[in-house]
Write a structure and sequence with these properties.
With about 150 residues, this protein is α/β, with parallel strands linked by helices. It has a single domain, classed as D-tyrosyl-trna(Tyr) Deacylase, Chain: A, CATH 3.50.80. The chain is built from three helices and eight strands; from the N terminus they run βββαββαβαββ.
Length: about 150
């Protein structure tokens, strides 16, 4: 399981011209699910994401988490994070989980992230053509793979 975490001033997900989710300051989390991922991967990434100290404290040093600052979170499924580019120029998505595994793991990730931060998280819609807008604050972008512990 892979996440790309972006510290944002604001972010939104629009589907068919309708805003599904929007947040102010917080995190936009892009989530890629692999066919070998389990609930253990979710636990690891939710804990890591919620506790990641990438917000500035009083001294201007990144020393506060999304929990510390009361920030919001949007989680968007993105199978392309599982792309393999080892051969040629056309990415292979052989490592991405199919819908039957990816949808329940995505939904569980969202539930656990909501529980971790103590408020609902915004979501996209699995498999939809989404337009994701964000103002990356910093910019701060962190990539974490649950297999690289």
């Amino acid at each position: 399981m892979r996440v790309v975490i972006q510290r944002v001033s604001s972010a939104s997900v629009t589907i068919d011209g309708v805003v599904k989710s929007s947040i102010g300051p917080g995190l936009l989390v892009l989530l890629g699910v692999g066919h070998e991922d389990t609930a253990d991967d979710i636990d690891y990434l939710v804990k890591k994401t919620a506790a990641l100290r990438i917000f500035a404290g009083e001294a201007g040093v990144m020393n506060r988490s999304v929990l510390d600052v009361g920030g919001d979170v949007i989680v968007v499924s993105q199978f392309t994070l599982m792309a393999s580019t080892h051969k040629g120029n056309r990415p292979s998505y052989i490592h991405a989980a199919g819908h039957e595994l990816a949808v329940p793991l995505y939904e569980e990730f969202c539930r656990r992230m909501s529980a971790a931060i103590g408020k609902p998280v915004g979501t996209g819609e699995f498999g939809a053509d989404m337009k994701v807008a964000l103002v990356n604050d910093g910019p701060v972008t962190i990539c974490i793979d649950s297999k690289d512990r």
